[in-house]
From TrEMBL:
GO terms for cellular component: cytoplasm. SUPFAM superfamilies: ALDH-like. Keywords: NAD, Oxidoreductase. Belongs to the aldehyde dehydrogenase family. The active site is at residue 213. PROSITE patterns: ALDEHYDE_DEHYDR_GLU (PS00687). This is Aldehyde dehydrogenase (NAD+). GO terms for molecular function: aldehyde dehydrogenase (NAD+) activity. It comes from the Archaea. Residues 5-439 form the Aldehyde dehydrogenase domain. GO terms for biological process: aldehyde metabolic process.
Length: 469
């Protein structure tokens, strides 16, 4: 039986400090335990069932957006961990002649990972494998909302690790509050900006470093040169996968007025092609997920009704079935900034459409909101692409496609200001969980020629040294 939170934390602290840093081979062995578990067909079947019960997620999406992502990151770690684990030599300035300087990556210690419910396996295990690759002990708190997947994660981790190496703690916000009372060496949180501020405030009490993967209102710009049939299909898929419950999903469209009519028609036909070919309704598609629970269903219903009450026009969709937690992909226009749908992250299959005529208007629209996690630009005009990127800070940018910002481990993933702090994926995530220790090793020589008593000769030498740098 797993002990209480403070006992787990204390045992992990003791083990990390007593054992010291594991070598790369030991770290990789721990990471590969997870890989082997997820390749077992029996374990996969249990996972399919858990994610279906939580989100009605089809098996293809389980592989494409959960298991496959984790395995791709593990493969990347396997190829690169030996290189990351080496001392990283840096150049030596002239005043330090005779020394060797390098950076050594060491584990931070005991880390806390708090993961969300929308991609409950992916967003729990991706940070976990990087924390393990860096040599840390980990307490993982998955979301209580995706309870079936959280139970799956706990069973998996219990089978694979001793609790003084990795432990899963389940529970609601009261459990998270207890965890945040402890002086962790690092906290990795994925969730909303509102909760991120709470995490950061609690971490500050212990001067604990944090990685905050947050969200926000990621705009999707479509200019007058964009290939509308291609872009509308890609955007329809991006807004519909996981029923829009994705931190990198396009939150609202900002489209050139000349392309609006064509976009609406192509978006409608794309939804039909993807989820309603038989003509029986998107609600009967086996490939379309559901809203996670009644609370979030009602929140989305309130956003929709508030927009309609304030003058928004329904262009397509608008079907809400609470008994089944189903909301159809829904387009709205005649949008104004006073609508709630433009004040908070939607996190569902509702898509406001805003038009512009002059590209300068786009920057004005984007700047009314905090810096987004992702900025999407659909354009075949290089000058327009550069214009939209300049002066519009974002965690990442995807051009002429959607949802790719979390796909390349060679690129850092994360937000900026309100949409996040710190980066994940690849070496960037390894560094988040590592202490970057600087080392200067004197091999020969000395600086004793500039020791006191100071003279004109010493003054000349010091001036000369720094003049030559």
């Amino acid at each position: 039986m797993q002990p209480d939170i403070r006992t787990i934390f204390g045992a992990q602290k003791e083990k990390v400090h007593r054992k010291g840093s594991l070598d790369a081979k030991e770290r990789l062995e721990r990471v590969l335990r997870i890989d082997s578990y997820l390749r077992d067909e029996k374990n996969l079947q249990d996972l399919y069932e858990a994610l279906y019960n939580d989100l009605r997620k089809p098996e293809v999406e389980v592989i494409a957006t959960e298991v496959g992502v984790i395995q791709a990151q593990i493969s990347y770690i396997k190829k690169n961990l030996q290189k990351w684990d080496r001392d990283h030599r840096v150049s030596t300035p002239l005043p330090l002649l005779g020394t060797r300087s390098y950076i050594r990556y060491e584990p931070k210690g005991v880390v806390l990972i708090i993961s969300p419910w929308n991609f409950p396996l992916n967003l729990s295990l991706v940070p976990l494998v990087y924390a393990l690759a860096a040599g840390n002990a980990v307490i993982l708190k998955p979301s209580e909302i995706s309870s079936h997947t959280s139970a799956y994660i706990r069973k998996m981790i219990t089978e694979l690790f001793r609790w003084n190496e990795v432990a899963v703690v389940e529970g609601d916000a009261t459990v998270a509050t207890k965890l945040l009372e402890l002086p962790f060496d690092h906290i990795f949180f994925t969730g909303s900006p509102r909760v991120g501020k709470i995490i950061m405030a609690k971490a500050a009490e212990h001067l604990t470093s944090v990685t905050l993967e947050l969200g926000g209102k990621s705009p999707a710009i479509i200019d007058e040169t964009a290939d509308i049939p291609r872009i509308a299909r890609r955007l329809a898929w991006a807004k519909s996968i996981n029923c829009g419950q994705t931190c990198v999903t396009p939150d609202h469209v900002i489209i050139h007025d000349s392309k609006k009519k064509e976009f609406i028609e192509e978006f409608r036909s794309s939804i039909t092609e993807l989820y309603n070919r038989a003509g029986t309704g998107t609600e009967h598609s086996p490939d379309y997920c559901r809203i996670i629970n009644p609370h979030h269903f009602q929140r989305l219903g309130s956003l929709y009704q508030d927009a309609i009450d304030k003058g928004a026009h329904l262009l397509t969709g608008g079907n809400f079935e609470e008994d089944d937690l189903f909301i159809a992909p829904t387009l709205l226009d005649n949008i104004s900034e006073d609508m709630s749908i433009m004040q908070e992250e939607i996190f569902g299959p509702l898509l406001p459409v805003i038009t512009y005529n002059d590209r300068s208007e786009v920057k004005d629209i984007i700047r009314r909101h905090p810096d987004p996690l992702m900025l999407y630009i659909a354009s075949d005009d290089r000058k327009n692409i550069q214009y939209f990127m300049d002066g519009n800070p974002a965690g990442g940018t995807v051009i002429n496609d959607y949802m790719l910002g979390y796909s390349n481990p060679n690129l850092p993933f994360g937000g900026v200001s309100n949409s996040g702090m710190g980066k994940s994926l690849g070496f960037h995530c390894f560094m988040e969980f590592s202490n970057k220790r600087s080392v200067i090793h004197r091999k020969w020589g000395s600086l004793d020629m500039i020791y006191p008593p100071y003279s004109d000769r010493v003054l000349w030498m010091v001036r000369s040294l720094y003049r030559w740098m």
